[in-house]
Design goal:
single chain; alpha+beta; 4 helices
Length: 107
């Protein structure tokens, strides 16, 4: 985990931040997006078939986490122009407005 104060626009950095901040508390915005992602995954026959083919529960959990973070990053990239990390919080920025996405207590 490496969380530092920064502003960024790329999806790769966003995915890294989502991985790190997943240990924290998601905002209502993120909770709603994840609920939609979960519903999509529950209806995705190919995903379910592949997930069920994995023997190890740990592999299934990792698959879910990776797929969730990829889809979440894609949705956030559509909603925001850039992202910022400050004071152990992740923000989405659009039109000068900052929306809290995650916060984490590292102490």
């Amino acid at each position: 985990m490496f969380i530092k104060n920064q502003v960024f626009k790329d999806e790769e950095t966003l995915q890294e931040m989502l991985f790190d901040f997943a240990l924290g508390d998601p905002s209502v915005i993120v909770q709603q997006l994840i609920a939609g992602i979960n519903a999509d995954l529950d209806d995705n026959v190919e995903y379910i078939k592949y997930r069920d083919s994995l023997q190890d529960e740990e592999d299934r959990d990792e698959l879910y986490s990776e797929e969730r973070d990829i889809r979440l990053a894609e949705k956030l990239m559509e909603l925001y122009d850039s992202f910022a990390v400050a004071d152990q919080k992740l923000y989405g920025i659009k039109g000068g407005n900052r929306d809290l996405l995650y916060e984490i207590d590292l102490v």
